[in-house]
Design brief:
Layout lengths: L2 H13 L5 E8 L2 E7 L6 H18 L8 E5 L10 H6 L4 E6 L10 E9 L3 E6 L4 E6 L3 E6 L3 H6 L16 H11 L6 E6 L10 E3 L2
Parallel strand pairs: 2-3
Antiparallel strand pairs: 1-2, 3-9, 4-5, 4-8, 5-6, 6-7, 9-10
Length: 210
């Protein structure tokens, strides 16, 4: 069992009493990132509470090998990473971006974007432009996948004085920032960091994810 799978088994039950869902776990040498969510939104206090509960649970289970590591707990943001079958099933009908593993699908581009039509335990089906042909991909073919936030649609809902020329090829960073702020639930980009097991002294500071 991988470290990420072990962490999932330890952390998910700890978050349930807090009404918080474990979305994803990413484990890298010296760094453990845990993504969480809640239907009513997450503020810094909730993420701090979850971080404390997660840290204690990981220490008690000795779930992360290798000694020192940084624990990062954050909310998903406007574009959600998709990794498990239930992640994909939640976003049927949404536009997703895929990055395929090298050589996974003969003749296919490595980067694909299209509407997610279906998802089961084996893989997904995506309608790929320009002909919107339905293409099937097994989960093992995917190196990375995430939802695609519709910046143009969000900007179209902005007050008249904030609207931009829709003929522009791509929203500017400032425009994307304004759009994402409208789309987020309260404090959805909050992040807390805490020392992991055997870290020694650390400030356990909480701040904003960038």
């Amino acid at each position: 069992m991988s470290t990420a799978e072990t962490v999932e088994r330890v952390v998910a039950p700890v978050l349930l009493p807090l009404g918080i869902e474990l979305v994803d776990v990413e484990s890298h040498p010296g760094h453990l990132k845990i993504t969480i969510d809640r239907s009513s939104g997450l503020d810094l206090a909730a993420i701090g509470q979850a971080t404390g509960a997660i840290s204690h649970a990981l220490d008690a289970a000795d779930a992360v090998p290798g000694g020192r590591y940084e624990l990062e707990v954050s909310s998903p943001g406007v574009e959600r990473r998709l990794r498990r079958p239930d992640h994909f099933a939640r976003y049927l009908g949404s536009v997703v971006a895929l990055r395929l593993r090298p050589g996974a699908v003969e003749g296919a581009e490595r980067r694909i974007e299209g509407e997610l039509l279906s998802a089961d335990e084996l893989g997904i089906v995506v309608a790929v432009p320009p002909g919107r042909d339905a293409q099937s991909f097994a989960y093992e073919d995917l190196e990375r996948a995430h939802t695609v936030f519709d910046w143009r649609a969000a900007l179209a809902e902005a007050p008249d004085h904030e609207r931009v020329d829709r003929r522009a090829a791509r929203p500017s960073p400032a425009e994307r920032s304004r759009a994402s702020q409208r789309a987020r639930r309260p404090v959805s980009d909050a992040t807390a960091r805490a020392p992991g097991r055997d870290h020694g002294p650390g400030d356990g500071a909480a701040g904003w994810a960038r």
